[in-house]
Structure formats: C-alpha cells, structure tokens
Amino acid sequence: MCLPQLCICIKIESTHPDEAIPMTDDSDSDPDKLKGPGGLTLRQIHEQVQKSVERDREEQASRNAIAPQRSRWQRWVRYVWGRSGRR
Fold first, then answer.
1. Vertex 21 angle, CA 18 and 27, to 5°
2. pLDDT digits (tens, 9 = 90+) for 23-65
3. Euclidean distance between CA atoms 74 and 3, whole angstroms
4. How far apart are CA 23 and CA 36, in angstroms?
5. What is the DSSP letter of 35?
6. Which end of the chain is more exposed for a tag (fewer CB within 10 A), N or C?
C-alpha cells in the first residue's frame, strides 16, 4: 500500500528583515573573515572550542585516575539503593 504524496509549502517571514543575516553556501567564505556572535572569527571560535574540549578530557581523565576503585560491596550497595537512596 502506497501513501499519497502531499506537497507541503511553508512560508517563513522574518520579523526583523533589516537585521537578518543572509545564509549563503559560498565555498570561498573564509573563516578568518566571518564573525561570530561575540565578535570572534569562526576560526577563533573553533580554536577556543578545541581547547575547551581538550581541557575537559584532561580533567575527566585526572578525575577518573584519582578516584579509588570501589569494592564489590560498594558497587552492589550503589546498584541496590542507587544515588537517591530511596529504592
């Protein structure tokens, strides 16, 4: 059984057309020239995100290394009662 295909047309109007940023798919757009929300270029934003991700990974790795290994009893208690302690 085939379902009928319906053509759906959606019209979107901008509430502030004078402030709209045109979305173009130019392959020649340079990330050093395009500015983001904080005035940073897209390349600067990318670099900041990469640094943040690396810091988060290092912090998570150090946090996991510092945590002592739980005994089987502690794991069982956590499994039975959970974090809330209300089970």
1. 150
2. 665 556 777 887 877 888 888 889 999 999 999 999 988 887 7
3. 56
4. 13
5. B
6. N
Measured CA to CA, the distance from residue 50 to residue 67 in angstroms comes to 26
Q: Is the pTM of this model over 0.85?
A: no
Beta bridge partners of residue 35, listed in sequence order: 41
In 3D space, the residue among 58, 54, 35, 55 whose CA is nearest the CA of residue 45 turns out to be: 35
Please measure the distance between the N-terminal and C-terminal CA atoms of the chain and give it in whole angstroms.
49
Q: Which two tokens stand for residue 42?
A: 């897209």
CA distance 75 to 81: 10
**Cα–Cα distance measured from residue 56 to residue 77, given in angstroms and rounded to the nearest whole number:** 30
**Residue 41, beta-bridge partner list:** 35
